[in-house]
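Reviewers of the previous submission asked for a worked example of the structure-prediction workflow described in the proposal, so we include one complete record here. The input consisted solely of the amino acid sequence. No template or homolog information was supplied to the procedure at any stage.
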Amino acid sequence: MSSVPARILAAGPEPAKTITSAGSPQLALATLVGIAVIVLLITRFRLHAFLALTLGSLALGAVASAPLDKAIESFTAGLGETVAGVGVLIALGAILGKLLADSGGADQIVDTILARTSPGRMPWAMALIAGVIGLPLFFEVGIVLLIPVVLLVARRGNFSLMRIGIPALAGLSVMHGLVPPHPGPLAAIDAVDANLGVTLALGVLVGVPTVVIAGPLFARYAGRWVKVAPPEGLMPNRPSEDLERRPGFAATVGTVLLPVVLMLGKALTDVVVDDPEDTVQRVMDVVGSPLVALLAAVLVGMFTLGRAAGFSRGRVATTVDGSLAPIAGILLIVGAGGGFKQTLIDVGVGQMILDLSEDWNISALLLAWLIAVGIRLATGSATVATISAAGLVAPLAADMSTTHTALLVLAVGAGSLFFSHVNDAGFWLVKEYFGMSVGQTIRTWSVMETIISVVGLLWVLLLSLVL
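From that input alone, the workflow returned the following structure tokens.
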């Protein structure tokens, strides 16, 4: 591994325009104040997380000397972008999850898994399922698809929720950060001109042991540290005995995997065809988009799940209506987390991290990881951290081999997952779905993300010595 002055990275992207002229010390103080306000309002004053995130964003802008109207614009833009990006997906996932649970389809999956998997192997089974499902999916999409199964397995099998949930989250998160076709890794591959196939192969090679350590193994400790029951509002009780029948296992699994297959088909088409004008690719770009794929699964599920269970049209409509109310708070919190992230970016905190890194003189792979960590901690976005850090370290790839260029992408991806906290929309998504407090989420989800980041880096460094 080469050790190079980071000053040569000045060829990276032009700094984005910010809404304040504050210097680095003031921006660092503003970041700390914003985060402290959020944590204090939630933990001490029991204020709703949506309100705490809103006030924390305004406090951040005020300490950074940003005009109030600009700070509000940044927050609302981030909130709107986040809700537009994941809000509809969360809603569609909630509908599919409700159909899955109320029809008895989720019970069918759980009964089959419990019957064929020993209790000791259940966390490993959940990690495997999440890893496979998470390969083509955005993290948010994967989590809304897996939540009904995770919660029901935990309740019906009398497992600790963390013992089952952490492996599933680890599988999804590792795929999101390290393995294309996720947007972060793809953007990094493009920025450093890495080979997609080599990066995908090495990403899986790094990802498998990382999931094992951060998932089933860490879950043993997380289950002891945090004991929470599956949230009642997000998981209906076992379907009543007046159901005429239950959907079959194959039909249920097929419905759940339909969006996975469609999105994976789009990803494969993009790689194999790679022609924006090709009719097949244009069709797959539409049907394989997360929105259309999940919408298709919902429509199919109304028949393969709802009607298969003997639901009338009215019963299906009632199920759909009942799925949306419990996620209203989640949508607001996730959106506000995106607003706080955008405020951090617009006041210049991300650029501050990039500027400070210019004077470091360390291993290229470690440097890439550290820069991604800094941006991740400051902005809360794994994708923003990946894209920014990859653009900054792109000049380093000029003299690297194909393998080491791919490892550079993975180092950036690993750094982008480090310690998710209150400025990350994913933090609030996990917190609400698993019914945890802020402290419990930090002790489980945040620690798990840090383990993924550190273990991923160690595997990248190890591979760099032997490849």
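The two ends are 11 Å apart (CA to CA). We consider this example representative of the routine output the project will generate in years two and three.
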